[in-house]
Amino acid sequence: MIGTLVNTAAIIIGSVTGSVFKKGLKEEYQDILMQAMGLAAAALGVNAIAKYLPDSEYPVLFIVSLALGGIIGQMLDLEQRFKHVVAKFTAGNLAEGLSTAILLFCVGTMSIIGPMESALNGNNTYLYTNAILDGVTSVVLASTFGIGIIWAAAVLFCWQGTLYLLAHILSDFITPALLTETSIVGGVLIFCAGLSILDVRSFKTINLIPALLIL
Q1: End-to-end CA separation in angstroms for the chain
Q2: Quick one: residue 199, left, alpha or beta (phi over 0 = left, psi -120 to 50 = alpha)?
Q3: What pLDDT does 11 receive?
């Protein structure tokens, strides 16, 4: 679990640092940072899709997963519930930033494989690398959306902690094919989050998250 703790700490430090920078940034600089974050998220999503889709053993599985997951998420109205919870504690557009942060931090390949590798082989390399990336990303996100991004650290800790425990319990069922399909769906979700930040189109990305469980 040491790798997950380091990853969580990196996000906390990055969020605090970014929120300090935000206080001294003019609006036009905050706007350009938001555009940069949107482009980066979209690029990371495209990269994941392009990298893992050719290796998929079931090329249409991610489509079915997104469709069924979206229906479940819409039925549960996860997006609206999430925004209501965030709105109780904050103001502004933090809900969009926090949902993007959660996707970037939790749905990325290293954040999924990392805790599994740590649990099964005692190797924390993926998590240490992920900590550096998440730390830098959280600085940019907090500079754009504020200190509320720090809540993503708690979500990441629970997410990676759960994967760590499941890897111990379900070690015989975790296959490279499953990780590939998860990475494809995760890439699509991150890409959607990027487009939402760029105002290309507003996607209900949170409603699509159950797609990760359909695999």
Answers
A1: 25
A2: left
A3: 93
